[in-house]
Amino acid sequence: MSKSDQLFEQARQTIPGGVNSPVRAFNGVGGTPRFIDHADGAYLYDVDGQAYVDYIGSWGPMLLGHNHPAIKAAVIKAVEKGLSYGAPTEIEVLMAEKVRQIVPSMEQVRMVNSGTEATMSAIRLARGYTGRDKIVKFEGCYHGHADSLLVKAGSGALTLGQPNSPGVPADFAKHTLTCVFNDLDSVREAFIQYGNEIACIIVEPVAGNMNCIPPVPGFLEGLRAICDEFGSLLILDEVMTGFRVSLRGAQGHYNIEPDLTTLGKIIGAGMPVGAFGGKKKVMQHIAPTGPVYQAGTLSGNPVAMAAGLTMLELLLEPGLYEQLSAKTARVAEGLKAAATKHGIPLAITYVGGMFGFFFTEESDITRYEQVTRCDMERFKRFYHLMLEEGVYLAPSAYEAGFLSLAHGDKEIEHTLAAAERSFAKLAG
Ligand code: PMP
């Protein structure tokens, strides 16, 4: 029995499912999750001493690789001064200024502790600002686990939302309308019926929670236009895409100006940080300047800010995103070539530092329903073959993969050689 097996058994006694976030339990692929001992650069090391090339990067934050020396040094320096004060600090001001410098649509910014808090707060603000209750989200997009967002589409295209989880009152869910990602007609229909009641559209500009699905040309522009027409706010949830798709996130890559943006993951460099921000006239509605309540004991925590600010400063290095995109393209195209060589139909998507692969005969993946039609059994087998080869992919066919700047030739060559052997076994 491996140490991971032992720890998983032990963990399940005191932690539900043995994990503090469900996807870590390997429910999507079966088997025992690897318990991690430490990480460095592009590698994770488990408690049994096995090394893995990591394509999860702590689910996004590790854009510069694990254990980055400058970020580590900044954290240690901050820790030496104190862990938390519950009072304003200079570094929070510097952080807000840095976010605005990089993402100019975020004229004002509020720090929180997770992506969930960021989206929950942005939606409350949008509702408070517009005086409307309904929101529009998209099937297959994930925005954290606030009640209004754990909602699935009702039975008909235009019925009101239904809870996606026990514990979410139907009375809350009915305010959430669920449309089809990359289908502007579905959004127009929702607005024709409910337009004057809709506070906001919230969207992952590149969907990364249904594998990886970029927006089709015109989709994000269309959402912007519909919001403008009906006086609703456009919230780009850039928790995943922020500082990953490009320095200025998806809004920079696709040139879309949102009213509000939510951030998480990379902005904390691995520390628990989220943020939401946008137009000053909207942000002024947040307490204490405005009536919409939002707060946090540890928000803007000095140690977390030290990590995040150092990360953002490092990201300003010229050429960094060209390198990241080239690495991502090499991995995604390499997977496709290896699969094709062994007669395995595989579709790929990639943008900036995120990618997806789909076991399907279809070539152009733009819709959630296409993801649900993929060969999940093949994905599971491939996943475990790659894990045995020392490649750590997201343990679910509904998650995007992430590259880091620490993924060098050696790691990418190892990954593609492992993929070739794995596809050969799948084909055999
Ligand atoms: N929004 C998006 C787009 C996400 O991908 C996630 C998490 N994967 C969240 C929000 C929630 O963030 P957190 O897990 O930090 O609460």
UniProtKB/TrEMBL annotation:
Cofactor (UniProt): pyridoxal 5'-phosphate
Domain of life the protein comes from: Bacteria
Signal peptide (from-to): none
Pathway: Porphyrin-containing compound metabolism; protoporphyrin-IX biosynthesis; 5-aminolevulinate from L-glutamyl-tRNA(Glu): step 2/2
Classification via CDD domains: OAT_like
Residue ranges that the Swiss-Prot or TrEMBL entry lists as coiled coil: none
Entry annotated with the keyword Ion transport: no
Reaction equations catalysed: (S)-4-amino-5-oxopentanoate = 5-aminolevulinate
Pfam family, one: Aminotran_3
PANTHER family xrefs: GLUTAMATE-1-SEMIALDEHYDE 2,1-AMINOMUTASE (PTHR43713), GLUTAMATE-1-SEMIALDEHYDE 2,1-AMINOMUTASE 1, CHLOROPLASTIC-RELATED (PTHR43713:SF3)
Protein name: Glutamate-1-semialdehyde 2,1-aminomutase
Protein's organism: Aeromonas cavernicola
Gene: hemL
